[in-house]
């Protein structure tokens, strides 16, 4: 992988922020977009902007073709069996809410159990709290090891025949932990539960095969994988999606409408009411083209080397606490002792380094880590080793700055 | 030089309040009111207690956790408002909010050390850290208005 050539495809990276070369290390929040994705969306708006699945005119046909081609690209990218299993949503949050309300609500009752992990993003936590409150189901958590991993034997002890739904993130957005979702799915299925995987932090960084995982549902967002915001995917096994009632109804999702009732279109359209984010879907297709041109295996192994380097450099700095396991996906969460994460983030920003500070939409996890917030540097394949060194240098300088300013 | 301009934000008086907070604690009693406020986006937490008698804040204490800006601001706020009349405090919280947003403000009233936070206006992402404690005071005054006056 030639990083310098790759970086030229991302116009935003070539700029000064606060008088310094931008070092963008907030990729777990959102990724940057290559010219090919931006241009694909501009082309749609400039040349064939039309609604999909409606008119028979030329532009409408072109828009529909590109929109459905993107769905097919996404299907191949995550190795789903059929296009019918790929539902466009606004992002992971909507995908998970669709499962919770469209699948969970009607099927859960008093005493049933939903099991999630303590490292879930609020998007894979609050919908289950809500559904549990509405149905009388019990929300349970897998115990987490001290290094921020899940132990399979404890997973096995937590799941029982009362468990109806297991929902786990493949990669933690705070710790970078890569969870054994395939093994968890097997245990869930043995007990008759369905397995939901939050793929928001994994899909951009590693090969995904929903059939090999045997996930019943899988959710991810476009904007964390070079695509635009406002587009995401809900994958579901066809028989499960067929059984779901739409929670949104209206245009584009119907078969036949009478004065008093209506019937639904086939999958996937049954679950896609209203005019979708057409440019977003086509842009996500272009993002997948870009990722595949580089190769997800290459991306994964390059990010692994970046992350190892970051972990090594940061763990050498006295007074820096790192969170999460040694083996992890492309991010590091840390604190500088005695300096609040927001102050660290402001200091790094003044050197052009963009990182995230806060609870990362994972407040229960923060209480497990016994801290209120962390600083998180998260990487993508366009980050360079020099940028990792700039981060380590910035952290050392921040430590000195706050050590001396009294 | 490292961190050009950063010391304009983290002035030494600010770091002094952060590391040696004034008026930390809680007030309980007949004329006391305590409120809590969070910054949900970043997790800063503030609890402010006021002791109000004859339309005056006789005493004030705070507890909290968060960044240097939010916590020093709380400490400075307690010094600025102690002993003031409720109407003066409303004016002061308004002036402070205008100042950290970089807008012209009335300087008839003395913000004390909190004046040092004017540099926050150059850091838009941090304005809400600076204003948290002052919003908590407003909330405490509203609560006091409802609770203490209608006993």
Automatic annotation (TrEMBL), chain A:
The protein's matches in SUPFAM superfamilies, at most eight in alphabetical order, are given as:
PLP-dependent transferases
Q: Name the cofactor(s).
A: pyridoxal 5'-phosphate
Please list the coiled coil stretches: none
Annotated GO MF terms: cysteine desulfurase activity; pyridoxal phosphate binding
Looking at the record, the residues that make up the Aminotransferase class V domain are 23-391
Q: Which Pfam families match?
A: Aminotran_5
Question: What Enzyme Commission number does this protein have?
Answer: 2.8.1.7
Q: Which keywords does this chain's UniProt record carry?
A: Pyridoxal phosphate, Transferase
Asked whether the keyword Transferase is assigned, the reply is yes
Biological processes per GO annotation = cysteine metabolic process
Catalytic activity as recorded in UniProt:
(sulfur carrier)-H + L-cysteine = (sulfur carrier)-SH + L-alanine
Q: Which domain of life is it from?
A: Bacteria
- Database matches in NCBIfam families: sufS (TIGR01979)
* Similarity section: Belongs to the class-V pyridoxal-phosphate-dependent aminotransferase family. Csd subfamily.
Q: What is this protein called?
A: cysteine desulfurase
Query: Per the UniProt entry, what species is this protein from, by scientific name?
Result: Sporolactobacillus terrae
Organism taxonomic ancestry = Bacteria, Bacillati, Bacillota, Bacilli, Bacillales
TrEMBL record, chain B:
Which residues does the UniProt record annotate as the domain NIF system FeS cluster assembly NifU N-terminal? Answer: 10-129
- SUPFAM superfamilies assigned: SufE/NifU
- InterPro entries linked: NIF_FeS_clus_asmbl_NifU_N
Name of one Pfam family that matches: NifU_N
GO biological process terms, alphabetically, are: iron-sulfur cluster assembly
- Give the PANTHER family listed for this entry: IRON-SULFUR CLUSTER ASSEMBLY ENZYME NIFU HOMOLOG
Which family does the similarity line name? Belongs to the NifU family.
Please give the name of this protein. Iron-sulfur cluster assembly scaffold protein NifU
